[in-house]
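Example 107.
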Amino acid sequence: MESTVTFLPKNKKTRIPSGTTILEASLGIGLVHRHVCGGNATCGTCRVIILEGKENLSPISKREFQLLGEDRIQQNCRLACQCKILGEVVVKIPSWLPVSVQDAQNS
Ligand code: FES
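Predicted structure in complex with FE2/S2 (inorganic) cluster:
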């Protein structure tokens, strides 16, 4: 089964196998997406905002909850490395996540 994810602000859309993480999907289409800990749920740098389809994502894990905190979760923030796509979603990669000045200019 396939799912669809759209990344803003670049407005890039891709179809991926259901169960793919948001981070895998963004990196898979060549987007700049910071992930300092390599997807181990310890840095928080991969966090994204879910704009549409939060019901189409895997449940928030205990580790994700601990790292993000209740306030960010209330604002539809998720860890892209932990969050699996199970349907259609629209995600914003925040502009405060560039890894370099060059990335910032391209975002
Ligand atoms: S890459 Fe570090 S928490 Fe997701």
